[in-house]
């Protein structure tokens, strides 16, 4: 072999046996390489002994693919979805939508509670944070919305884990029957389209699971425009810089949460499923424990999911939402109540209200993944609420904002993880804070 050939030959991949002990927020198990570097392994479970092959090396950590499970966990199960498995032994899952199908649901719930606890300890600097057991609304058939990528042949699917390739998917076990019907009606002739989001709702008077669904396809056109849209009793909206534009039929759906019906426009955010939304509403109502005439500030209010529930309990609600589409829906959803719905950033609203010495009995906030931010969160204390209810979609952001709230004078009473996205690494949490000298009501109603 020539010297040039030997100098360009690839070094053999490193293989190691690891004892796994930790867990990342992305659902990867963590072990230690012989040099002490942390190594992240997808598809494994803390407590297992595994054989891995290192695929990525960084200064402080490494990532490896799972080659074999040498000592399996008692919580390892056969994944229920055929798309979850890899196409070759030790290869990445074909579909990147789920990360934990190899883990029994009860262990998934425990793992997610651990993630929330560790983020509060490490980022929020809380010693022994008060984290309850994880609530699990459902493990399959819970999603009423799904965003599909599109293959070069026009098929709908999801991206591979850690890559951009799209795996064609004709059935997803996480979708409700109504949402699966919308996916099937959409077909696989979307060449040139970037994404297609399917969203199901319930016509007025029809309960979830009735088989009678409203529906909309929200299409993100590519450079070539939009191909002919399949026929069907489904509304179609096109994304644009100005928001979704109606292309065909009704593009607003109705969502039933408990006894309440919510209008949700194509451009408005709503939780992925009404089963999970109902759990969040119950937790928020239980923690807020409003009495008739109590004042409530609902920040990042969306279409009014929590605002309507608290208004129905007799509260005088001020709801703040930055997105005009969602704020418009909130006004419609709260039309029968004496509620003040404002369109604008929550951060600006809090600063304005604090400067004006406004006060509220209860503050509810449901910020995006980045959280509310330390400055805004700290200023909430100036509104003198007896209770703050924080609905978080990212445990790290919750930990940062929780520290800001406590440093501003509130007490962290309890945190309840809610597994709205079973089999994925995502986790929601509802945290309750009380003003010093006051009390917060337990989460159960």
Question: What would you say this structure looks like, in words?
Answer:
There is one protein chain. By secondary structure, this protein is α/β, with parallel strands linked by helices. It folds into three domains: 74 residues, Nucleic acid-binding proteins (OB fold (Dihydrolipoamide Acetyltransferase, E2P), Beta Barrel), CATH 2.40.50; 188 residues, 3-Layer(aba) Sandwich (Rossmann fold); 112 residues, OB fold (Dihydrolipoamide Acetyltransferase, E2P) (Beta Barrel), CATH 2.40.50. Helix content is 22%, strand content 28%. The strands form four sheets. The chain has a seven-stranded mixed sheet with strand order 9-8-7-10-11-12-13, with helices on one face. Helix 2 crosses helix 9 and helix 4 crosses helix 5. The protein is globular and about 65 Å long. The N terminus and C terminus are likely disordered.
Summarize the structure.
The chain has 445 residues and is of the alpha/beta class.
* SS-based class: alpha/beta
Count of helix runs: 9
Average pLDDT taken over every residue: 91
Low-confidence stretches: 1-9, 439-445
Alpha-carbon Rg, integer: 24 Å
Search tags:
alpha/beta, 9 helices, 22 strands, OB fold (Dihydrolipoamide Acetyltransferase, E2P), Rossmann fold, 445 residues, seven-stranded mixed β-sheet, disordered N terminus, disordered C terminus
